[in-house]
Every structure is written in C-alpha cells, then in structure tokens.
Amino acid sequence: MTSKKIGTIIQARTSSTRLPEKVLLELPYTSGTTVLQQVIRRLKASEKINQIIIATTTDDADDKIINIAKKENVQFFRGSKENVLERYYLAAQENDLDVIVRITSDCPCIDPEIVDETISTHLNKKSDYTSNTLIRTFPVGLDVEVLNLQTLEECYNNAKNDLEKEHVTSYVHNNLDKFKTENVSVKGTDRSQIRITLDTEEDYALLCSVFDYLYEIDEFFKYEDIIKLFEEKPWLNLINKKIIAKKSFETVDEEFKEALKILELQELKNVQKFLQESLKKTVQD
C-alpha cells in the first residue's frame, strides 16, 4: 500500500476579534516564546506527521505569523482571510497532502500523542473524517480533526454559506450522512469541562498558570499531566469559568438560546427575562 503524506495545517492570524494577536502572546509568561511557537514545537513531536504548514492570510499584519513559521523552519501558505476553507484546501493542494490534520493556533497545550492516536484511528478505520470533538470528552484546547484530501475537496466544492467557508469542517458536520466518520474519546472520565484554549484574557491567565506549574518539569507535558494538575488544583477552573466559546449559528433561535446562557452567567436577569419572553413569543408566532 502506498504511504500517505500526512500534513498538519495550522490556521493562524493576528486579527482575532476577542483577543487580538493572541497567538503572539508569550507562554510561559515573559519567556520570549509565543503561543504559536508552542503549538508548532509540540506538533513536531508527532510520530505520524510528515509536514507542518502555517496557513495565514495575505494581510500585512500577518507578516508576523510568517516570521514565526520561518524561525521554526516550517512551511507557510497565505490565503483568504474570510474563506478559511479555501485557505486550507489550497494549502493542502500546494503541499500535495493526502491526509490533513487540522489544528488551530490557539491550542498551545496540544498533545502530539492524542494527535497521533487520532491519525491512527483515521487510517485504520479508513475514515473520511476523524476527530475527538464529534462527541467531546477531551478538554477544550486538545482538539484534533483529521480528514482526507478528497473530503476537504468535497467541502470546498460544495460549501455554500459563509459559515461553512469560515469554519473548515462545518460542511462535514452539516452532512454527516455523506461521510464515514470516527470519534476518539478519552479513556476514563469525561474531561470536556476543562478549557485550555485561548480566546480571552481569562484563558491566557489560566494557560500562564498551567505553564508555570508544568513547563519547567517537562516542556512537552501531556494530557495526563494537565488532568493531574486540575485534580490537585481545582481552583484553576475558576479562572475562565464564565467564558463561553465563540460559536456560529444557523438561525436566530439558536443565537437567542446562546445569548440567554451568557446573560445567565453574567447575572443580567432583566435582559434575560426580556429575551426569554421574546423567544417564547417568536415560537408561538
């Protein structure tokens, strides 16, 4: 059997809305090493990945991303800012990838062993799309998606709306009946309540704490080390407890329901009540 070329494409840009230039923040704090560098270096420890590509935009501001790619001696590709799906597809084509591992640049705790497990499951099961997020049991921030070039091409050719173009695998999630999919789950207790991704200042404070505790012991600390740390210091969960991951929605009703969750967390009870009544009226109409 001909071996497949497996490449990780890391999407990265400086113009994140909630925390601009978040991938350029330093981890550990004041270490001189950026979040993006931590992601790259961890993925270099994978035994299954043949190539790492940073997929960024053509914006001048993202020259900083290119400089990091060059410094870390990995490939880079520049494409559309809004159409991330196109950016992925063209980057995969340019680098002759057979299998694409999708990683986002805001996951500096990514575990190469979990990445390799997901890749192995994908290849062994002859899947079109394999992930550890179809049914989430891993902490948010250890997300891995693996898909064949043919699957990515089908997404690229058939994605119609902005949501499916902005979020690379939305077309797969919206058409699961068209694809052979596999999910990788934790062995043991569900840990999906832990959030170690980077979207907000609170997330950054938590990640700085995690790296302060674990990085000096082992620069490539594992999933198990993270879980042990949170078991020993459960107060860490309080740092970003009220952060809700940014999501995209197909309908106004879905956005209403998400807004209610946020208002409840912020204890904005009057507005929450107003929206609940509005949603109820909308459903009745």
Q: Could you explain how this protein is built, in words?
A:
With 285 residues, the chain is of the alpha/beta class. The chain has two domains: 6-183, Spore Coat Polysaccharide Biosynthesis Protein SpsA, Chain A (Alpha-Beta Complex); 252-284, no CATH class. The protein is built from eleven helices and seven strands. The protein has a seven-stranded mixed sheet with strand order 3-2-1-4-6-5-7, with helices on both faces. The mean pLDDT is 92.
Keywords, separated by commas or semicolons:
single chain; 7 strands; 285 residues; 12% strand; 41% helix; Spore Coat Polysaccharide Biosynthesis Protein SpsA, Chain A; alpha/beta; 2 domains; 7-stranded mixed sheet
Principal-axes geometry comes out as: globular
CATH superfamily label of the largest domain: Spore Coat Polysaccharide Biosynthesis Protein SpsA, Chain A
Tell me which CATH architecture of the largest domain applies here. Alpha-Beta Complex
Number of helix segments?
11
Q: Would you tell me which CATH topology of the largest domain applies?
A: Spore Coat Polysaccharide Biosynthesis Protein SpsA, Chain A
The description of the largest β-sheet is: 7 strands, mixed
Please tell me the total number of domains.
2
Residue-averaged pLDDT, rounded? 92
Structural class: alpha/beta
Q: Unreliable segments (pLDDT under 50, ≥5 consecutive)? A: none
Oligomeric form: single chain
- Rounded to an integer in angstroms, the radius of gyration calculated over CA atoms is 19 Å
CATH top level of the largest domain is Alpha Beta
Strand order within the widest beta sheet: 3-2-1-4-6-5-7
Terminal residue distance: 59 Å
Element string (H = helix, E = strand)? EHEHEHEHEEHHHEHHHH
Task: Let me know the number of strands.
Answer: 7
Instruction: Report the portion of residues in β strands.
Output: 5-15%
Q: Report helical residue fraction.
A: 40-55%
